[in-house]
């Protein structure tokens, strides 16, 4: 092992050394860790009469965990602090890492050892978690091409490397286009309707670039308020077009249209995934993707989505008819376009419910929201959260610890604000998983919680805390739900602790479950304070928010169904080698299922990172699938409150015991049934969305 003092990526004694890690550390660390892991694999490949858990699985997991953790740190930095130097070494080393994991997944000797362990007398004595790890490993070897002939193994390995490179290029193109677009407005009159904090952020952005005026970008906190509030239709159209065409052949406003066009990357990814499926003797990549998931088959998923679309369509059509009539009669927009929809929706909401999203936002300053979130978690799961110390990658990042009964059980980094060089969206990732080490010490889990909210801004000469929209509050709760799933685990086996080993279409259950608390009066009282007066959210405004909760839920449901069906059909019954294009399929799905069809220049799929760069390929349906589980799970809390309220804490304990603590150590459906006492039902989802079962 190399000297850890000279290379911080090789130091696993504590937290990642973000204060010391530099691009030049990446290549030597990765090459060393791959060599170390290959050395262990070579020893374990040797034939033996018997295979034991301690003699085989433990050393294999320990050697590969070090590589996984180091690459995880590099991957994280590449997503949150992208620089040319870091990107270069990331792309240089990604093929090496991909090659290692592919050859590991195809290793017939290791596959044979797992089979040997599965057939041994020891297997029956293993804990359920360890037996599940062995079963998962056998499945993953089959999906990794371990049973393929040698020539096909080589091609399979090439496919994995090409897919990894294409996915990285896909996300880099989206990030580069996002960072490239800058819209400078010099006449303040053009910004009529925009909230003061959005204008302040735009002015600060212009000043950072040495310009006078207001500068907008395609980072969500910058462009979305324009679509939502700007009275100027021309301004809304400009920013809508830019966002809808980024990383595509239609992106005329970008400085590197051809270089950042993801059309070819998408086509190549789909061809490679189809070839991978055929090599493994599956009908389609969707079948491969669903093998380790809860859903039975692509047909099952499509039927679920189409049924949901059928139930939502009457509500969506009513939503759209009302919106078009309002836009025409009240706003003078004769023919509502895509760049009008968000603006008109906000105006309709204001008229119908007598409040605006901006009015609500002023009650959600970041410090109060974060403290409120921690309070909810403390009450629900009997833990405490406190600031902690750790090296970080940016001054805005904070670090915390979670304790129960004075004992630390997990830690997390919180990176809340949008900035150049940071990928869009919000996500949770694991920095370290829980496991019981060979020395008998519990390695506690660590999570990254990343969002892209508006940073604090100077308004009227005073620094104002970041103000969150209610949607952003919900996003924070969502990502923290993932974090809780990872950090509150009580499983000591690395491969099934926390989120590891959880079926992909169930992994959204805790995150969507946590969103529900953002609508509870008792919760909101404790996490709101008007930015100027300090007053908590008024009950009257809360009632209006509640009344508007399912505003346009029909249209929103159909939009998620549309994305999910596009994903599933692309990976199930779309022939990537035919004359039919991806855009043709997108248009077909929209014609069948959308009520508000985007303009022909819209290329949303060119930045659809979930399925082309984020692991959700043939899995985007998981959001709606898990929403059924989460709504039904939350109904248990609602029932407890109706029964007298005293059972709320007990319900939280049960949710922790049966869902969060067990991680992937048993099938997700078993965990759900242990919590709910029955199979999941769709009724709660429909009720929560204001769409009662027909």
Automatic annotation (TrEMBL):
Domain Peptidase M3A/M3B catalytic: 229-690
Cofactor note: Binds 1 zinc ion.
Source organism superkingdom: Bacteria
Cofactor(s) required, per the database record: Zn(2+)
Catalytic activity: Hydrolysis of oligopeptides, with broad specificity. Gly or Ala commonly occur as P1 or P1' residues, but more distant residues are also important, as is shown by the fact that Z-Gly-Pro-Gly-|-Gly-Pro-Ala is cleaved, but not Z-(Gly)(5)
Protein EC: 3.4.24.70
Pfam families in the cross-refs: Peptidase_M3 (PF01432), TOP_N (PF19310)
Keyword hit for Methyltransferase: no
Keywords on record: Hydrolase, Metal-binding, Metalloprotease, Protease, Zinc
Residue ranges constituting the Oligopeptidase A N-terminal domain according to the UniProt record: 30-152
Gene3D superfamilies from the UniProt entry: Collagenase (Catalytic Domain), Endopeptidase. Chain P, domain 1, Neurolysin, domain 3
Family, as annotated: Belongs to the peptidase M3 family.
Name under which the protein is recorded: oligopeptidase A
Native species: Massilia aerilata
